[in-house]
Every structure is written in structure tokens, then in C-alpha cells.
Amino acid sequence: MSEKTLSFENVGLAYRRNVGFWSSKNWVINNLTFDLYKGEVLGVIGKNGAGKSTLLRLIADIVKPNQGDIWRKPKTRAQLLTLGLGFNNQLSGADNAIMSLVILGKSIKEAKSLISNIKDFSELDDLLNYPVSTYSSGEKARLGFAIAIQAKPDILLLDEMLGVGDKDFQKKSSQELKKIVNSEQTVVLVSHSNVTLKQFCHRLLWIENGTNKAIGPCDHILKEYLKK
Ligand SMILES: Nc1ncnc2c1ncn2[C@@H]1O[C@H](COP(=O)(O)OP(=O)(O)OP(=O)(O)O)[C@@H](O)[C@H]1O
């Protein structure tokens, strides 16, 4: 686990907050520095509002930093999987899947050929032909997870995604993640569940007020975090 795939150097990100006539900068990520290595599962922990989801959005290149540098190994593709998935609600599940796969570098032909696997994994059957606006949140999660499994991005970003769906789907997604943990794929996982963190993560990054409070082996960092 020595090949660097991504690196943050003194990264800062501020959101603008408008209060009446005034607008101020709210630094959500501050001077954040860490490296991510190919094939590792890095867990991200921290209190509510610490900046964990924002960090995933920065890695996915959905938002840009106001300060510092983010280095990605050339051609590295990261995919964010979160409950607030960026689906187009008017399009069908199948069309959303094709669109996501194409964004992640597959050709349209390849993307179309993966639909039957997505159908099998998600168990959405004919629902895949209906607009995503008609899906329950669990069904959206199934679709998102199934797309991510087929897309095999270099970096899979999971934001509190392991406790979603019904019991059967939780079991299925956790089995799939176990396979990923033993593969070359890199994962960054945000979770408030100690069980999930211990089960999957090699290292943990502890974020406090948007900055790196500690990073290191999972058991050690979790012990320190729980002492607080
Ligand atoms: N679009 C936005 N505009 C303004 N402030 C935002 C925006 N998105 C997030 N924030 C603020 O940034 C801070 C960090 O949010 P973030 O969602 O990254 O936290 P988190 O660590 O993932 O929290 P949680 O554990 O509650 O999910 C919060 O204070 C939040 O209110």
C-alpha cells in the first residue's frame, strides 16, 4: 500500500453565509493535509458538522478548494455515493445508470451492457424503467450502490451508505464492500458506526473543525476518538 493516489496539502474550503445584508466566509475545511494510498480503505470520523461530507465532495471534484492543493494521480476517477445522490429524477433508473457510467469513463455501449448486472444487484427489476422520482430512498440507495459496483471507480467514496436499505440489502452491500476491501480499489468511507469502521477500514482520518486532528491505524485512532 505504497502508491499514492491522492494528496491534500493545506486544503481550505469556505462557504459563503448570507445574514441580512452581510455575507461572511465560513471555513468548513481548514489547512487539511493527508495522503491516500491505492488499495486502502480510509475511514473518516468526526463530530456532526466537522466537514466529513465536504471532504468527500472535494475528493470527488464536486467542489473546488479556496486554498491549498489537491493532487490526483492522472486519470484517477472518484465516485461519490451518498443518500442525496445526484440522480436526474425525471429520467429512469436505467438512463441514470447509463449517464453515471458514461461520466465515469465507460462508453455508451459498455454502459448499456452493464444494465443487466445493475438490475440483478439492485433487484429493482422493471422499476429500472420508471423515473427515479418514483423511487423510495432505499430503492435509490440500491440503484446508487449497484451503479458504483459496476463502475468500479478508482476511488469509491461512501457517505454513510452501509446502513441503508433493508436487512438483505445491507448484507449484500457489506459483502460487496468486503470484496472491494481485498481488491486494488481505494475507498474513503464516512461513518458514525464503530462496527463498520472496524470491519472495513485500514486507517482512520479524524477531522475536527475541518482539519486533520489525527490519522493512523484504525484501532488506535478509534480508541483516541472514543476517549474524548
Ligand atoms: N452548501 C453549504 N453552504 C453552507 N454551509 C454548508 C454547506 N454544506 C455544508 N455546510 C456547512 O459545512 C459544515 C460541514 O458540513 P459537512 O456536511 O461536511 O459535515 P459532516 O462532518 O459531514 O457532518 P455530519 O456528521 O452531520 O454529516 C457544517 O457546518 C455545514 O453546516
Order of helices and strands: EEEHEEHHHHEHEHEEH
Overall 3D shape:
globular
Structural class: alpha/beta
Helix fraction bin: 25-40%
Q: What fraction of residues sit in β-strands?
A: 25-35%
Largest beta-sheet characterization: 6 strands, mixed
Computed over alpha carbons, the radius of gyration is 18 Å
Bound molecules: adenosine-5'-triphosphate
Beta strand count: 9
- Poorly predicted runs are none
Head-to-tail CA distance between termini: 30 Å
Strand arrangement across the biggest beta sheet: 5-6-7-3-8-9
> Helical segment tally?
8
What is the residue-mean pLDDT, rounded to a whole number? 90
InterPro entries: AAA+_ATPase, ABC_transporter-like_ATP-bd, ABC_transporter-like_CS, ABC_transpr_TagH-like, Bact_Polysacc_Export_ATP-bd, P-loop_NTPase
Organism: Sessilibacter corallicola
Family: Belongs to the ABC transporter superfamily.
Keywords: ATP-binding, Nucleotide-binding, Transport
Give your account of this protein's structure.
With 228 residues, the chain is α/β, with parallel strands linked by helices. The model has no long low-confidence stretch (mean pLDDT 90). Helix 4 (115-122) packs across helix 5 (137-151). The chain has a domain at 87-152. The chain has helices spanning 52-59, 93-103, 108-113, 115-122, 137-151, 167-181, 194-200, 218-227, and strands at residues 4-19, 22-37, 41-45, 67-72, 78-81, 155-159, 186-190, 203-208, 211-217. The chain contains eight helices and nine strands. Helix content is 35%, strand content 31%. The strands form two sheets. A six-stranded mixed β-sheet has the order 5-6-7-3-8-9, with helices on both faces. A three-stranded antiparallel β-sheet has the order 2-1-4. It is globular, with a radius of gyration of 18 Å. Adenosine-5'-triphosphate (ATP) binds next to strand 2 and helix 1.
